[in-house]
């Protein structure tokens, strides 16, 4: 008998070995159960559904991995199996490990095994949340939200209508804002402040013994989007200036609509997201606004602007459950920047004027002389005057400087102006007859002269006061009074002490300036093309070119001047 039992046991062991081996290939799922030390735990074999146990053809057995002995079916055992469930009443630290449920059937061809891991941990007192154990739940800000106390299914039956207590951060929850519905917690008027660590606690009574059950929940509160139509932040029925043929990209930025609810139309036609068209749309990544609404942006891309695109609205439309909005953009021709253009023209003009001024300043004399020489110059018609210039100089008191002055006035000046340039001069002291009344000559001559030329020697005023020479005095006055006679002031050799000069001279110097003679008596200095003579010629009246050569060559003129000298 005992041998039979023994053999039976051996057979059973052998069979289970075969089963175990055969089922090795049929592991179907893994599960991980976490439970604090001292709390009850129930695990259901999830294979159960696919087998028919009613017929008795199949058996479901729980094992602890590594222990050939099946978990007892004795309901009073701390760990026992019952139908497809394995019970830990309660679980203790040593129970940690892998458990498996094996389903074996009479025909031995169908066998399945499920493995599950159980971790029993020490619950730390004073901690409001055992992070490993906590279940994460998410609710939205709204008028009410439900928080579930998880994994209580097998602890609820008719005998166990569980009173559940809810804690937040170890504080018992009370008040109008909280309601307790079966195993759930209801929170009204949810705000961000409701986010935090929650614990639900209850008891389970089995076989006259009470077990504590606690579940940790990490509650996350998310802002729920307001219930309103979407908004388009851009475009805003505005226009942009673009150039013909250019590429244009316009964002349509919306808030509150999903991607498929945002699109562009042009000319009433939906603009597709195909890249093959000249005009297409390109969706962008979605972002979330601070209030939880989606932010979606769709680009309108015109790869080349045609003239037909102008003045035609491109409309962006967005919609959601609460309404729809639209906003358009219009392309306009880019008008040239008038102001910038004008500024540019003005600046160029100023610059040109400046350059012309500089050039004129530098080449004024040469230009005028060249112009006169060119023969185009308009020579004023006969004004009845005989002389081009009346020349005055201070006869002074002798000395080398006075000799220089006389040489200049009587030799060089006539040589250049009369012989080379053909001017007709009246030189006081050369062309006046001795004994003639100075005053009458001077007055007469001035009336017949186009210019008055005053030559100041360097010693002029140290030796003789100009005021003492009545003819010069008179000439000056008449020049000043009759402003139509221009005065040419020539300074000989170096600085003149104007402070000691009569006021009339100072006035002329200030008004017309002076030309300075720094040359010697060489041939070069006597050329009409030196800077000095150009300045003098510039101040002299214009001379006809014909008359220039005429006078220059005419022996009669020479005779005249010779006659004058005599
Ligand atoms: C194997 O399991 C049985 C039944 O659960 C138990 O009595 C026995 O102590 C276990 N053996 C070992 C070595 O854990
Ligand atoms: C199932 O278990 C019962 C009793 O525990 C046994 O009589 C039966 O033969 C088993 N069936 C299979 C298929 O192992
Ligand atoms: C073995 O028995 C099970 C349960 O009755 C059945 O589902 C399965 O099809 C059978 N397998 C074979 C090969 O007959
Ligand atoms: C929720 O808020 C509304 C309006 O603010 C208020 O009328 C209502 O009494 C609040 N409900 C609770 C339970 O506090
Ligand atoms: C929730 O618990 C975790 C872990 O103990 C802690 O880091 C976190 O600050 C707690 N949250 C709140 C809102 O108290
Ligand atoms: C743009 O125009 C549409 C009608 O075409 C109008 O519904 C919308 O309110 C306007 N949007 C703005 C920002 O003016
Ligand atoms: C539209 O949104 C995108 C992405 O948020 C941003 O880069 C772009 O500047 C926005 N465009 C306009 C016109 O506001």
From TrEMBL:
The UniProt entry, under Gene3D superfamilies, shows: Immunoglobulins, Toll/interleukin-1 receptor homology (TIR) domain
Q: Which GO terms describe its molecular function?
A: hydrolase activity; interleukin-1, type I, activating receptor activity
Task: Give the domain of life.
Answer: Eukaryota
**Which PROSITE patterns does the record cross-reference, listed alphabetically?**
IG_LIKE (PS50835), TIR (PS50104)
Ranges of residues in domain TIR:
385-540
Q: Which keywords does UniProt give here?
A: Cell membrane, Disulfide bond, Glycoprotein, Hydrolase, Immunoglobulin domain, Inflammatory response, Membrane, NAD, Receptor, Repeat, Secreted, Signal, Transmembrane, Transmembrane helix
List the InterPro entries. Answer: Ig-like_dom (IPR007110), Ig-like_dom_sf (IPR036179), Ig-like_fold (IPR013783), Ig_I-set (IPR013098), Ig_sub (IPR003599), IL-1_rcpt_fam (IPR015621), IL-1_rcpt_I-typ (IPR004076), IL-1_rcpt_I/II-typ (IPR004074)
Residue span of the signal peptide, if any?
Answer: 1-25
Alphabetized PANTHER family for the sequence: INTERLEUKIN-1 RECEPTOR FAMILY MEMBER, INTERLEUKIN-1 RECEPTOR TYPE 1
Indicate what this protein is called per its UniProt record. Interleukin 1 receptor type 1
Q: Which gene encodes it?
A: LOC116236527
């Amino acid at each position: 008998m005992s041998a039979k039992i023994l053999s039976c046991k051996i057979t059973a062991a052998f069979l289970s070995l075969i089963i175990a081996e055969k089922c090795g290939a049929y592991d179907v799922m893994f599960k991980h159960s976490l439970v604090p030390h001292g709390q009850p735990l129930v695990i259901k074999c999830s294979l159960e559904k696919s087998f028919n146990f009613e017929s008795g053809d199949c058996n479901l057995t729980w094992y602890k991995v590594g222990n050939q002995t099946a978990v007892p079916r004795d309901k009073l055992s701390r760990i026992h199996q019952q139908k497809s469930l394995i019970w830990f009443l309660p679980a203790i630290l040593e129970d940690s490990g892998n458990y498996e449920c094996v389903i074996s059937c009479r025909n031995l061809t169908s066998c399945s095994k499920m493995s599950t891991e159980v971790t029993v941990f020490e619950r730390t007192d004073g901690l409001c949340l055992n992070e490993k154990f906590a279940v994460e739940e998410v609710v939205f800000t709204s008028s009410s939200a439900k928080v579930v106390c998880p994994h209580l299914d097998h602890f609820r039956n008719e005998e166990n209508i569980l009173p559940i207590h809810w804690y937040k951060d170890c504080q018992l929850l009370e008040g109008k804002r909280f309601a307790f519905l079966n195993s759930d917690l209801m929170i009204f008027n949810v705000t961000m402040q409701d986010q935090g660590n929650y614990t639900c606690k209850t008891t389970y009574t089995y076989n006259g013994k009470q077990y504590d059950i606690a579940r940790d929940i990490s509650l996350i509160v998310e802002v729920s989007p307001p219930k309103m139509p979407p908004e388009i932040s851009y475009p805003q029925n505005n226009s942009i200036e673009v150039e013909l043929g250019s590429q244009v990209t316009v964002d349509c930025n919306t808030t509150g609509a999903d991607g498929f609810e945002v699109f562009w139309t042009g000319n009433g036609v939906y603009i597709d997201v195909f890249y093959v068209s000249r005009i297409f749309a390109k969706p962008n990544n979605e972002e979330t606004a601070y209030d939880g609404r989606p932010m979606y942006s769709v680009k309108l891309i015109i790869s080349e602007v045609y003239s037909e695109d102008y003045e035609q609205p491109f409309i962006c439309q967005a919609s959601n459950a609460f309404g729809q909005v639209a906003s358009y953009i219009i392309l306009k021709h880019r008008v040239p920047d008038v102001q910038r253009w004008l500024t540019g023209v003005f600046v160029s003009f100023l610059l040109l004027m400046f350059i012309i001024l500089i050039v004129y300043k530098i080449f004024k004399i040469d230009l005028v002389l060249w112009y006169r020489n060119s023969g185009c110059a308009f020579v004023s018609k006969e004004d009845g005057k005989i002389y081009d210039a009346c020349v005055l100089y201070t006869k002074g008191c002798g000395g080398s400087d006075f000799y220089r002055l006389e040489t200049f006035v009587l030799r060089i000046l006539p040589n250049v102006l009369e012989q080379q340039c053909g001017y007709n001069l009246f030189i006081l002291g050369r062309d006046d007859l001795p004994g003639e009344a100075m005053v009458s000559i001077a007055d007469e001559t001035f009336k017949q002269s186009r210019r008055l030329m005053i030559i100041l020697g360097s010693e002029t005023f140290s030796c003789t006061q100009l005021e003492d020479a009545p003819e010069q005095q008179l000439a000056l006055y008449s020049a000043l009074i009759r402003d139509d006679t221009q005065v040419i002031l020539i300074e000989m050799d170096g600085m003149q002490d104007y402070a000691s000069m009569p006021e009339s001279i100072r006035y002329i110097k200030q008004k017309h300036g002076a030309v300075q003679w720094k040359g010697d008596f060489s041939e070069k200095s006597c050329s009409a093309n030196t800077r000095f003579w150009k300045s003098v010629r510039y101040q002299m009246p214009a001379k006809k070119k014909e008359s220039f050569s005429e006078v220059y060559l005419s022996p009669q003129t020479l005779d005249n001047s010779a006659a004058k000298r005599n």
